[in-house]
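User: Run a structure prediction on this.
Assistant: Running it now.
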Amino acid sequence: MRSLFPGEDKESQVPVVDSFFLLFSPLTLADDCQLSTPGMDSMEQLTISLINARGEVVPIKTHIADSEPERQAGYQFVCEEVINTSTILFFYSTPIVARFHMNNVKAPLDIGFFDLHGVLIHHEVMDIYRTEAKPIYGPDAPFQFALEARAGFFKEHQFIPGKSRLVLVER
């Protein structure tokens, strides 16, 4: 199995991702949602675990977005019922500083950002765009993983920055 965590002794530079790549979205063909998209279909599924603030291990089956097309696709155009029953783990080969958007996303999302050691460093709730104001989301600190889930997921499972950790499970 490939490891998503780099060696602890390696030092890496932290590239800043051009916001064009994270903010790019395809043209909207219709307001209708889809149960599946080519972007989500191409994502590998993997079981990961998160250790919450109480020390409990919570296994999660998630989609892995580890290529630029998969990361750009995310939950865009996907129906709310799919968002409510799935998660996406965005994986970057090295820590980055970047922002996420909610263009063409049909339901609010929780997003948690994890450092290269898997520690949850930041959490936000991203709301759907209802007005012309279109905020972008993300920490000012570098992260290597970002987990998107339905809104309320992090609170429900007590995933708290500095007290929760991402653990990958062997397949």
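Residues 6-30 have pLDDT under 50 and may be disordered.
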